[in-house]
Amino acid sequence: MRVFFSFLVFLNCIVFYGFAQKDSLSLNYQPRSTFIKKQILPIGLITTGALLNIGTIKNSIDDKIPHTNTNIDDYFEYIPMAQMYMFDILGFKHQNSVFDQTKYLLISQFTSSLLVHTLKKTTKLERPRGGNNSFPSGHTTNAFVGATVLFHEFKDSEPLLAYSGYVFAAATGVLRMTNDDHWLPDVLAGAGIGILTANLVYHFKPLKNFQPFKKKKDITAVPMVSPNSVGLVCRF
Known about the structure:
Elements: H1 2-20, H2 32-38, H3 40-51, H4 57-63, H5 73-76, H6 79-89, H7 98-123, H8 138-154, H9 159-178, H10 184-204, E1 220-226, E2 229-235
Antiparallel strand pairs: 1-2
């Protein structure tokens, strides 16, 4: 539990450090209060997930959950990401280029995966069907990363499409529980980490200027002749 609360402090430090730097950076930040309010839900999910690991309450909850035996959740976690590219192909207006979408998606996935892996190895909580590394749910985290990236890309132009990814992300979390792969706190924390990580990436936009495929500006070469020299003047 100590590791978890250290993790929360770390995330809050990232958020407040970013705001402390906003006067010296040219990035377009949301107002501080607005951004922090939007993180109440994911931080609440992570906190609730951690607290539900205390005692045997998660066992009581699991006893009331119906049980299934399917692997469809292995595919559901990727549907929000597939939706984003499908909406791009269909021509729906989105916030960033496909390259930037992919860049922010990969950064969000890498960061969230690192956090999840660290928490799994540190907490070593037992799964419902046996085995360690239950907390948090990696499938759920990945699904909510994809759903949140999809949301940020289409929230201003296509709200219904933007929220649609959360349906499959939530279904992934539910199936992880009904398949006896995870407890409710694992799923709640995974959802919170996925949402929060993607929110932070889209707020701070790391590697924003990394555009290796961006077209170079045109170069114009103009001959220059003077009594003493001959050369070219290049204009970029």
